[in-house]
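Figure S4 source data
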Amino acid sequence: MSYDSAGEQWYTTYKPLLFSHAYRMLGSVMDAEDVVHDAFITLNNADLSAIRNPKSYLCKIVTNRCIDRLRSARQKREVYVGPWLPEPLLTGDTDETFGDPAARYLQQESMSIAYVLLLQQLSAVERAVFLLREALQYEYDEIADMVGKSSTNCRQIYHRAKRSMSAHESTTGEQTERAATARAAGGKIGLIVEQFLHALAAGNIPKVLSLLAEDAILYSDGGGKVKAAVRPVEGADRISRFFAGLLTKLPEGFSVQLTNVNGQPGIVTFEQGRPLTVLSFRIEAGLIASVYIVANPDKLRHLQPKQPSTNPERD
């Protein structure tokens, strides 16, 4: 196999996995794409015949690039205005929205905003060790080589990170199981999100309230660039009133579209065809437990303008 054909094959084979790993680490679609691109540039300048395990070689590069980015971005995160949320990845239409197998891979992994957000509580190294072990199933000796620590230390870091994750939310396996259960039940989660959308479109606030868990929380990420709630909105009643207020301030040419956000049902809103916000949800026991609204325009730059298929004014 020639150098060019080997490199091309590795790119096709490993890019979706590398992107998903980088996205989990960074919570940014654009940064993840940059990191993966850098990894293949490095590969292009390497002696491929000396690389025994291209997957591990590339994962090591991506992991360390991500750790470097997280460390350099720490100060910006500390002064971020309002709640910080991951960049949404639209996975509803892989041909038009993302255009490569990474979107399909993320759909299979049920890469929810809630889970990526939960990873943010871990330090950069903890996140790397946890994901390399939990998601990519690497042995501790392999992880140690990737992050420059001993195998024993990596084992300790992993168990500490897993305890921290488990103390707050469900693990990846449990999330995947819930997603599979929802699909088997005829897309119950999608039905709840669709009901929520139509209730909003009709201005039916009592119906919105009925779909929210009593202790639901809404997070709105404007990043100080656009108007958004700078603190989480807690409680079904306050959330329903929050949306009632938004309905009175809809811009000219406002429209919405149901799609998949990070592999789960979500909503994109548009102003004159330009992406305005992305809404995603955490559903528990048939009710909306969390609402995540990304409005920061910097986090929507990777989304392509698109003519929405659903308009509240017509529903």
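Figure S5 source data
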Amino acid sequence: MSGVSSAPTAALPLLLIVDDEIDITDTYSMLLELHGYRVVTAQHGADALVKAQQEWPDLVISDCMMPVMNGLELCAALRALPGGQSLPVILCSGAPERHDLSQSSHNLFLRKPVFFDRLLEEIQRLLPSSP
């Protein structure tokens, strides 16, 4: 074991990234881990819901258009769980006109392509205990 001390991994904020495009989840995972976050990824909303119940995330970043369960449905399902009302949810889409966002309880909507600096800034804003 090295003499270098580091924060316990469980103390780092956990971000759940949900997108059916693997390039997006891989890229966000790598960049966010470099910025001191733990990351779990899911390919669609139903997968994300299972993973969220296994280990509750501190914030969710989700695409809107996905198979099985889309981002709007995921947001509603998360809100229905204990603690879900206070969970920060960022929804993203390259075609916002295709979604009725008026009935969604997400915290923030970002149009794709999302620039990483903006995403990081918004995560830090939504997470009070951000690294």
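The two ends are 24 Å apart (CA to CA). The CA atoms of residues 22 and 68 lie 16 Å apart.
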